[in-house]
Amino acid sequence: MDLFEYQGKQYFARFDIPVSAGGYADTVDAAVAEADKAGYPVVVKAQVQVGGRGKAGGIKLANDATEARTHAENILGMDIKGHVVRRIWVEHASDIAKEYYASFTLDRSAKKHLAMVSAKGGVDIESVAEEDPGAIAKMHIDPVDGLTEADARRLVADAGLDAEAVEGAVDILQKLWRCYVEGDADLVEINPLILTDDGKVHALDAKVTLDDNAAFRHPEWEEFRGVAQLDPREARAKEKGLQYIGLDGSVGIIANGAGLAMSTLDVVNQVGGSAANFLDIGGGANAETMTDALEVISTDDKVKSIFINIFGGITKGEDVANGIVEALGRVKLTAPIVIRLDGTNAEQGRAILA
Predict the structure, then answer these.
(1) Diameter of the chain by CA atoms?
(2) Can you state the angle between helices 65-75 and 28-38, rounded to 10 degrees?
């Protein structure tokens, strides 16, 4: 689950990571109130989960209440790369001396956590990695051992952060590690991590991705889900308990098993098609599940055909076929369906479909 910037900063604050004073708002009046509370000058920032906010006019500096009101009026409702701004974050403006980068995530290939720190912050880390890979200090961290203060100091030294930022950066790295591990995150990123003119280090931005598999430990995460901006198709699938991700193609995909679903997307792409979605129905290929899957796919106007790819293991071919036949009696479809059915009792299943 990806958090908005303001949610990420709220999450950081739980672990004593210093962030700029501010608050979020979903109305103009509330934005002005937050600006008054934070103290001028303030920065008014659009809250959307996409990059390029500044270039799109979604980040503005306000020196007084009049400017804060004008910026809030202009930013609320703005469309940034297809994302409508429904709330904004208003924070006290910082005097920035230097911008850095810091993050923790999982390196699956190494089966360890990965820390990254750079003296080149404020820009896409991908650009830094491509243009000057030596500017990023990296360290693999064994989950058993964790991050020590010595590790944090070595990271800061290897990244070449300014001397006056060392102690603050070391402190924040240790707190960010706690946020990452104890907060059950897949990614925590500060870009930029700033050094202010008065020598303080704090997080000016926050990017946090929480591990959905740990949600049972965090009932408080429900407050984050309440404002998530889901693709309407994904929201519908979520209501039905389906593993669905919306894409931009024209071939609707239904498969059983994440690996088979991904392989199916690849095959469709290899022969010149483009997938409209990823949809894994797991082991439940009964009538109810197939109906739900076809209903979600049929609401996508871009879908011109549907490819159902089922391999029967525990799932029996005749059960799959009966589920599809019954589902077709419940859902009105305009797109043709192609079905590949193999595995346990596949011949019986194909006979039923025929």
Answers:
(1) 77
(2) 140
**How far is it, in rounded angstroms, from Cα 238 to Cα 112?**
31
Distance between CA atoms of 329 and 347, rounded to whole angstroms? Answer: 22
E-strand ranges in 281-326 read 305-312
- Which is the catalytic residue, given 6, 11, 100, 101? 101
Rounded Cα gap, residues 59 and 43, in angstroms: 7
Calpha distance 5→16 (Å, rounded) = 16
189 is catalytic: yes
Residue tagged active-site, from 189, 244, 295, 318:
189
pLDDT at 284: 64
Structure tokens at 332: 């009105």
How far apart are alpha carbons 145 and 143 in whole angstroms? 6
Strand partners, 311: 342
Angle at 267 between CA 265 and CA 268, to 5 degrees: 65
Do residues 327 and 298 lie in contact, with contact meaning Cβ atoms separated by under 8 Å? no
Report CA torsion sign: 169, 171, 176, 181.
Answer: positive
DSSP 320: H
Q: Is the pLDDT of residue 323 over 60?
A: yes
Buried residues in 89-121 as b, exposed as e (16+ CB within 10 A): bbbebbeebbbbbbbbbbeeeeebbbbbbbbbb
- What does the pLDDT look like over 88-140, one tens digit per residue? 999 999 999 999 999 999 999 999 999 999 999 988 888 888 888 889 999 99
pLDDT of residue 229 exceeding 60, the answer is no
Does the annotation count 244 as an active-site position? no
- Structure letter (DSSP) for residue 19: B
Tracing tokens 């790369």 back to the chain, one arrives at 81
Share of the chain above pLDDT 70, in %: 98
pTM for the model: 0.72
Q: What is the pLDDT of residues 131-163, one digit of tens each?
A: 888 899 999 999 999 999 999 999 999 999 999
Task: Work out the average pLDDT over 2-13.
Answer: 94
Strands 207-210 and 185-196: antiparallel
Query: Is residue 58 within 8 Å of 158, Cβ to Cβ?
Result: no
Which of 44-48, 216-220, 289-293 reaches the highest mean pLDDT? 44-48
